[in-house]
Structures are given as C-alpha cells and as structure tokens.
Amino acid sequence: MNAHSRKPFVVAAALFCGLVLAAKADSTVTYTTSVSGTFDFAPTPLALQQFNPNLGTLDSITISLSANSLTSLTVYNTSPSAYESPSFVWDDVQILLGTSTFDQAVDALNPNYGTWSLPNAWLDVSSPHFNVAGVTSGNSQGFSGDNTGVSGLPAVASGISSGTVFSDLQGTGTVNLDVASDSTVDSAIHGGATFTANETVTGGITAEVTYNYVASVPEPATVAMLGIGFCTLVVMRRRHAS
After folding, report:
1. 3-state secondary structure 50-111
2. Which residues share a beta bridge with 60?
3. Quick check: helix, strand or coil at residue 160?
4. How does residue 13 score in pLDDT terms, banded at 50, 70 and 90?
5. Nearest residue to 205 (alpha-carbon basis) of 92, 51, 43, 91
6. Cis ω before 86 (30° cut-off from 0)
7. How confident is the model at residue 163 (pLDDT cuts 50, 70, 90)?
8. pLDDT band, residue 21 (cuts 50/70/90)
9. Beta-bridge partners for 143
C-alpha cells in the first residue's frame, strides 16, 4: 500500500476516532435568555423561554432579576413649622412575584426572602434621599431622580436542579413569571413631622434565565453503524491495494 493509497484510510480513521471521542465526551454548555417589561402594581407577565430538551440534558438553572426605575416626587409640608436640617424624603419600590404555582416556586428560591418589610420582595429599589430641609409650613417642593439601591444589581437564584421550577422550565414554549411592585414614601424629618406627597414611579424589570446542560451527542447505535462502515472501507481499501 503506497502513500497515495493510504490517504483515504488515514482520513477515514481520523474521522471515526473523532466521532467516537465525541460520543464519549460530556460537553457542558450554557445559554442565557432574557426578557424585560415594565412593573406596576398589577402583575405583569414576563414570558421566560423554556429549555428545549432536544438540546441535551438539563443540569441546572440560574434565574436573575434586575430592576431600574425613576421617581418624581412632590412633598407638601403639612406641619406648623419649617423642616429643620437634616430632613429627607425618599421613595422605596419593592418588586414582588405573582401568585401562580410557578411564581410561588420561584419565590421559594428568593435569595432576599425576609430581608425587607415584605418578605417576598425579590428586589428593593430606593430613590435618592431628597433633601427637604427648609421647606416651610404650607409649601411644597418637587424632586426627580433615578432610583438606586439594587437597581441594575440582580438578585440571583442559582443551582436550581430539581423541583417545580426545574421541571416547568423545560419544553419548547414559554412560562410566565408575574411581577408587580409596591411603592412607599419614607421620610426622616426634623422640626415638622407631617407631610403629604404625590409620587410617580416608572420602571422596568429584566429576568435572565441561564441553562447549564450537557449537549446531545451521537446515539451509540449511530456510532456502531459508523464503525461498521469504517471497517468495510478498510477491507475495500486492502482489496484494492492487493
């Protein structure tokens, strides 16, 4: 068998070895899907893309929620005296999940559970502390600012490998995660203890779902058939060489 006649054999052998190695190796990969929407006092659905089982075997899931918002606030001094320094008023927004079975299953994984006044708040987003010192009795002052706190810093539930969330997020469609908000005006005022406020809060929330999975590889039967074909090719090459 000369060098020229061995070339197809070498190529075929390399191809077969590559297929066998691919069949034996576990290739863990990830992909992330995200969806965004506005939050309001009424539940707003975020349609999370499910993991398609045709891609492979799902290993674990990570769910990440982040929020951003803008507060416009007008404060009216209803006390009989001017506010002394230091005196501040701010808006606090808490992001809540819905009441469906899936929502509650996700909520059970809440990394912030019990951290704030509402135990199922996933995120707590606060506006700047607006300085109201010097606002006199009967007068008002308006403020506006981007909310801070955990805005843009996601709350993450990772390593989800069993349970309702793990099973519900597998399929070829979407699953709704309902989110809502609760907004309050907080204050630390000296010199006058009462006020009224008009607030407008606008914002959005983003949910990211990362799937860690072992990618599908050729079926053993397929590899066996390729092996038979390879052996047949070797025999044919040897007959041709002789």
Report:
1. CECHHHEEEEEEEEEEEEEEEEEEEEEECCCCCCEEEEEEEEEEEEEECCCHHHHHHHCCCC
2. 212
3. strand
4. very low
5. 43
6. yes
7. very high
8. very low
9. 73
